[in-house]
Structure formats: structure tokens, C-alpha cells
Design a protein that fits this description.
Structural class: alpha/beta
CATH topology: TIM Barrel
CATH architecture: Alpha-Beta Barrel
Number of strands: 8
Shape: globular
Number of helices: 9
Number of domains: 1
CATH class: Alpha Beta
CATH superfamily: Metal-dependent hydrolases
Helix content: 25-40%
Largest sheet: 8 strands, parallel
Length: 275
């Protein structure tokens, strides 16, 4: 079974579109395209990746589709579509024709928690289920109670929590996040990406011991079959290289059986996204 990076991004940097890339993240204020990622995947023995949206437009979805058509190592994409749009079913019917489109995401971390419980948004999630698309949940810990309400309503919709819900690793806060994660992990249709953790830690001084307690909770409550490895490249570069990110996760799971490691580093992603 081949290794899969279940979460990374491509962009042609634009200060307006990518206004979330602040002064402190100047290292990623440039273009990141497949030719930049492919050698890193090869060096780290990763066979393919899932490209995830970083801008809120269908133009972004179409950009990722085009990159995937030109680069066979992009095995799936998670695009953006207006889930609250009146025409959501038409848009999903359109994207269903592009087999590379596996699911969708909205940058919920930038919204009030109640955003995801609006009737229009819920109608969009219901449509995803109908068309067989996954949904990536990008949030902060304060959103976890709303996510719990969301997932309760859709027991058959495949969801995945991005970046272990971005706990406050930098300050060591864990309790509120832990409570929310444990509640959500009880739903078997919800998966979790082992990704993005270093960007929530102290970028310059993090060490693996800072992250271990959070990984312990994820493993204990989601179990091995619902965890997906993702690099979050190139965002991860603010806190470390591709190799360092993968090394952190590989090191943590090094005592697990080879079958368990295969699940986390590829098999689960292939199954969740139907790669």
C-alpha cells in the first residue's frame, strides 16, 4: 500500500485572496505548485496527495481540478462550493462529473460557530451526502460544540476534522479541546487528520513532547482506522520542513504495527476519499 499525504495546498500567491497569510508567515508568501511538491513526496516515499482548497471560490476548485489533470500524483481534491447556494444540487451535479473531486470544505475557522448550523448550510451538507462527497471540517476548539450538533444530524455523511481541530498547543491548553474531541469521536462517520499541529505550537521552538499529549487523545478516541496523515504543506513551512512534519508523525507511530502505520499513512485516506 502506498503512502498518501491527505492534506496539502497549492496556490498562485495573491495578497487579497490569501490575506490570511500574515507578516509572520512571509516564508509562504509565494507560489506553491505541483512541481514544488513532487520532489518532496518522492524523497519521503509518498505516492500521492489530496489537494485541499485554500480560497473560497469555484475558481479555486477548477484550478485544483486542472492541476490534477496535469499531475497524476494528485489523487483527489477537496474543493469549495457555496453550500448555502440555492443551486447547490446543480453545482454538485456538475462537480460529480469530475471524478478527481472527492469532497468540499469551507473555512469554518473564520466564521462564527453558528454559521454551520444555519438552515442553508445544513441543506448543503445534506446535498453532499446525496451526491457522495466528503466534507472537511476546518475549525478552532471554540467551534467543537457546534460541530457536535452538526455531525449528530448527518450520521451517514463522511466528515473529517482537519488539523485535529487546531488545539492551543502553544499555550498547552487542552481541556476544552479534549472534551469536544471526545464527544465528536463517538460518531463513527467522523475521521480526523493528523496534520497541521506544528502551526498551532511555538513555530520556532516546538518539540515533539509538546504535541504528544494531543496525539494520545486523538489515537485513544478516534482509533487507528479513522486517522489520516497530512503534511499541511506549504503552510507547515512556517514551523518546519516537509520532512520534519512527516518525521514527527512517523516517530510518534513508530511503535505501532506496520499494518497500523499503513492505515494512518495511506489506507485510511484511500478509503475515506475513495482514491
Amino acid at each position: 500500500m502506498s503512502n498518501i499525504d491527505a492534506h496539502q495546498h497549492f496556490w498562485q500567491y495573491d495578497p487579497v485572496t490569501h490575506d490570511w497569510i500574515n507578516e509572520g508567515m512571509s516564508v509562504i508568501r509565494k507560489d506553491f505548485l505541483p512541481q514544488d511538491l513532487q520532489p518532496l513526496l518522492q524523497q519521503n516515499k509518498v505516492a500521492g496527495c489530496v489537494a485541499v482548497q485554500a480560497a473560497q471560490s469555484e475558481k479555486e476548485t477548477d484550478f485544483l481540478i486542472q492541476l490534477a489533470k496535469e499531475n497524476a500524483f494528485i489523487k483527489g481534491i477537496v474543493g469549495w462550493v457555496d453550500l448555502r447556494g440555492e443551486d447547490i444540487r446543480d453545482r454538485l451535479m456538475h462537480y460529480q462529473q469530475e471524478k478527481i473531486v472527492k469532497g468540499f470544505r469551507h473555512i469554518l475557522q473564520g466564521e462564527d460557530p453558528v454559521f454551520m448550523l444555519q438552515p442553508g448550510f445544513l441543506r448543503g451538507i445534506a446535498a453532499l451526502q446525496e451526491f457522495g462527497f466528503t466534507y472537511d471540517i476546518l475549525i478552532f476548539p471554540k467551534h467543537l460544540p457546534a460541530v457536535l450538533e452538526l455531525v449528530k444530524q448527518f450520521p451517514d455523511q463522511p466528515f473529517v476534522i482537519d488539523h485535529i481541530a487546531k488545539p492551543f498547543i502553544r499555550t498547552g491548553l487542552i481541556d476544552e479541546w479534549k472534551k469536544g474531541i471526545i464527544a465528536i469521536a463517538q460518531f463513527p462517520n467522523v475521521y480526523c487528520k493528523v496534520s497541521g499541529m506544528v502551526t498551532e505550537a511555538d513555530w520556532k521552538n516546538w518539540k515533539k513532547e509538546d504535541i504528544t499529549p494531543y496525539l494520545d487523545i486523538i489515537v485513544n478516541h478516534f482509533g487507528i482506522k479513522r486517522l489520516l496523515y497530512g503534511s499541511d504543506w506549504p503552510v507547515c513551512l512556517v514551523a518546519g520542513s516537509y520532512e520534519k512534519m512527516m518525521g514527527l508523525v512517523r516517530d510518534y507511530f513508530s511503535s505501532f504495527s506496520s499494518a497500523e502505520q499503513e492505515l494512518i499513512f495511506g489506507r485510511n485516506a484511500s478509503q475515506f476519499y475513495q482514491l
